[in-house]
Each structure stands twice: as structure tokens, then as C-alpha cells.
């Protein structure tokens, strides 16, 4: 407990009861953890200054002790109060900024030898145990990253390492940092070859087959396959605007003979 003996010796004339000794001990734990006492009471004073020592009048009220602390890198004030109830001291430490409160109950008789108040070597019964209780229950704990986040970060790093070492893995084409490159639209020239076949409804630059005679650019006769083809397709067989590939002469009657016709009865010359 380096430093506690020097502090205890400095305030020995102010320690008049076991409660004073416990408050002195808790004060030193605050100092060890980076806090500095700026005064006593609840309200700030013009005489406030950061110090490792206990301020004047710190033990004037044996039923209610009140001390204020600050750390070296913040203006947030921590208010420490100790309330005496029978043989117990109830400590409350409040962050004036966030209003968060931590509590600690100390049985004075279990921690201090009342007949050894002015003998530092024997005044505290279990200094190490009391120190652990103060740090575990009263002092604010430093913020830590959630365990799950750290675990996920480790797994992600391991996964990236494994991917980078995989000789069969194709590298990412997109850079991880910086602006994304501008890739030309594959439906725009000169990359539009075959685009019409991918867009049969003609929403982009036409549509249909590459060699569609109805969309070849030559003058059209006004033929509309959706109205039907006599003797070939009934009206409505081709939806309006649909791609239509002609499959025979467009005349009303096909010239004969038609190889699709049935041969005359008894005719068996397959070469005629």
C-alpha cells in the first residue's frame, strides 16, 4: 500500500474514530486510480485545487463525509459521500456528468482496529481485501469493447488472411479503398453486340433477333403478323409487338406442288 502510510501520517491528528480511518483509506484508493481531490462538500469553492491530500474539514461531520474529485484529463466531477449507519459506512460515488452512481458498504468493525487508530501497521485488519472491494464495487470501470465485437473482428481478420493465401481464389476487381472506377454500360456501344437478343421487347435500341427481316432497316410493307396470316396463322396467334420470324412465302396461296401434301393413292415413287 505504497503512499497510504504517508497520507495516514499526515492526517493522523484528524482521525478520531474508525470511520475516519476507512474514509482515509477509500480516499487513497481514489488517488491511486488517477483522481485528485478538489475539496469537501457538495458545492465548488474558490479554494478548490487538485491535490492528493485530504482537504481541510474533511472529517468535521462524523455522520456524513462528502468529498469531490476530478481526473487529470477531464472536467467531470466525481462526488464521494460516506454515510455512517450504526457500525456501517455506506459509500456513494456519483458522476456529476452522467449521474451514474456506484455503492459500497463497509462494516467498520471488520476493517479497522478501533484501539490502534494511531498505529498504521495495525490499524487496518485486511487492507488488501478492502482495496479489492473498493476497486470492484465503488470505482468506475474503464469502458471495454464488447467481447463479441472483438471476437468477430478476430474471425474477420483470420478469414481475410485465409482468403489472401488461397491460390485458387480470384482477386477482387473492386478496390477496397478509394473511389470506385466507372465501368461503361454494356448496353451502350461499342459493347452492345447481341443486346437486342437479350431485350426481345425492344426497350433498349430495338430488340429481337440479329437478322430479323422485319427490323432490318429496309422499308417495310406494313405487314403486321398479329393480324394473322391467311391459311397459315389465325388472327391473334402472334401477340402485338412480339418478335416474329417468317417461315414461308407471305402470299395468300402457296405455289404447288407442296412437299407437305399427301401423295396420290397408290403412288409410291419417293423420288418424284
UniProtKB/TrEMBL annotation:
* UniProt feature, compositional bias: Basic and acidic residues: 134-162
- Gene Ontology terms, MF aspect: endopeptidase inhibitor activity; proteasome binding
The protein's superkingdom reads Eukaryota
- PI31 proteasome regulator C-terminal domain residues: 180-249
Q: Which GO terms describe its biological process?
A: proteasome-mediated ubiquitin-dependent protein catabolic process
Q: Does the keyword Endoplasmic reticulum apply?
A: yes
Entry keyword set: Acetylation, Cytoplasm, Endoplasmic reticulum, Methylation, Phosphoprotein, Proteasome
Q: Give the subcellular location.
A: Cytoplasm; Endoplasmic reticulum
Q: Any idea where the PI31 proteasome regulator N-terminal domain is?
A: 13-117
> In the UniProt record, which is one GO cellular component term?
endoplasmic reticulum
**Ranges where the record places region Disordered:** 134-194, 230-272
Main location as per UniProt: cytoplasm
Q: Which family does it belong to?
A: Belongs to the proteasome inhibitor PI31 family.
Protein task: Plays an important role in control of proteasome function. Inhibits the hydrolysis of protein and peptide substrates by the 20S proteasome. Also inhibits the activation of the proteasome by the proteasome regulatory proteins PA700 and PA28.
Q: What is this protein called?
A: Proteasome inhibitor PI31 subunit
What is the species of this protein?
A: Poecilia formosa
Amino acid at each position: 500500500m505504497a503512499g497510504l502510510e504517508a497520507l495516514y501520517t499526515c492526517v493522523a491528528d484528524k482521525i478520531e474514530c474508525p470511520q475516519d480511518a476507512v474514509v482515509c483509506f477509500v480516499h487513497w484508493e481514489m488517488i491511486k486510480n488517477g483522481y485528485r481531490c478538489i475539496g469537501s462538500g457538495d458545492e465548488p469553492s474558490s479554494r478548490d485545487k487538485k491535490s492528493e491530500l485530504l482537504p481541510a474539514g474533511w472529517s468535521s461531520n462524523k455522520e456524513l463525509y462528502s468529498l469531490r474529485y476530478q481526473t487529470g484529463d477531464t472536467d467531470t466531477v466525481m462526488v464521494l459521500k460516506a454515510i455512517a449507519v450504526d457500525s456501517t459506512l455506506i459509500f456513494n460515488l456519483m458522476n456529476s456528468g452522467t449521474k451514474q452512481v456506484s455503492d459500497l458498504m463497509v462494516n467498520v468493525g471488520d476493517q479497522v482496529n478501533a484501539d490502534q487508530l494511531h498505529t498504521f501497521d495495525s490499524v487496518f485488519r485486511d487492507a488488501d481485501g478492502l482495496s479489492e472491494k473498493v476497486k470492484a464495487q465503488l470505482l468506475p470501470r474503464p469502458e471495454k469493447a464488447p467481447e463479441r465485437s472483438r471476437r468477430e473482428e478476430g474471425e474477420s481478420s483470420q478469414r481475410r488472411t485465409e482468403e489472401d493465401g488461397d491460390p485458387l481464389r480470384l482477386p477482387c476487381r473492386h478496390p477496397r479503398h478509394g473511389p470506385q472506377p466507372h465501368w461503361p454500360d454494356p448496353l451502350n456501344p461499342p459493347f452492345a453486340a447481341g443486346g437486342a437478343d437479350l431485350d426481345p421487347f425492344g426497350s433498349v435500341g430495338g430488340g429481337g433477333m440479329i437478322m430479323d427481316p422485319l427490323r432490318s432497316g429496309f422499308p417495310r410493307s406494313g405487314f403486321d403478323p398479329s393480324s394473322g396470316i391467311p391459311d397459315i396463322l389465325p388472327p391473334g396467334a402472334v401477340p402485338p409487338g412480339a418478335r416474329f420470324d417468317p417461315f414461308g412465302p407471305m402470299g395468300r396461296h402457296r405455289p404447288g406442288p407442296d412437299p407437305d401434301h399427301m401423295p396420290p393413292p397408290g403412288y409410291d415413287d419417293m423420288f418424284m
